[in-house]
Amino acid sequence: MQFGTLLPTAAVVLTALAPSAVAHADPPGGTPFELSCDVLGPISIVTPPTDRDWTPGLLVDGNRVLVPYAFEFVARGYVDGSEGPEDPDFVETTSFGKPGPRNGRLDTCRLDVSFTGDDGTLIVADVTVLVSYTRR
User: From the centroid of its chain, how far is CA 9?
Assistant: First the structure.
C-alpha cells in the first residue's frame, strides 16, 4: 500500500471524526467518539453523518458545540500489521487549518485512531484538533 495515497483517505475519515462536538440532540446516524482536550478535559462527542470539511459536532452530555479550525495528523505505518514501540515502517505528518476565531473559547483536543489497510498495513494515527467551543 502506498502511504502517500493512504494519508488523504485517512484524512477524510479522520476529518469526519475529529472535527467537532455538539448538544443532547445527537444526530441520528452520527459517529460517537472520545476526545481528550486541554481545557474541556475528556469529552464524548457525536458528529453528524456528513463528508463536509469543518463540520461541528455535538457534546454527548451537554449542549456545547465544538467547531474545528485546524488539524494535524501523525500517521505511523506497520507493513507487517504489528505495532512496535518505536519501529514504524513509515511516518507521515500532515496538517491544515484556518485562522482561529477570536472568541477566546479555544481548545486543543487529541484522538488516537488505528485501522488496517486493504493490504494488511496497520496505520496508527495521532490526531490533534484545534477547536472553538460554545458557552454552556
Answer: 13
Quick check: 45 and 17 in contact, CB under 8 A? no
Three cell numbers, residue 122: 496497520
φ/ψ region of 103 (left if φ > 0, alpha if ψ in -120 to 50, else beta) reads alpha
Separation of alpha carbons 79 and 100, rounded Å? 37
Percent residues over pLDDT 90 in the chain:
40
Which among 57, 69, 80 has a CA at the least distance from the CA of 107?
A: 69
Grade residue 130 by pLDDT with cuts at 50, 70 and 90. very high
Residue 45 makes CB contacts below 8 A (sequence gap 6+) with 20, 21, 22, 32, 33, 34, 35, 57, 58, 59, 60, 66
- Looking at residue 85, what DSSP letter applies? S
Please name the residue that has the C-alpha cell 498495513: 121
Residue 25 has a pLDDT of 55
Read off the pLDDT of residues 12-56 as tens digits, 9 standing for 90 and up.
Answer: 444 444 434 333 556 677 878 899 999 999 999 998 887 777 888
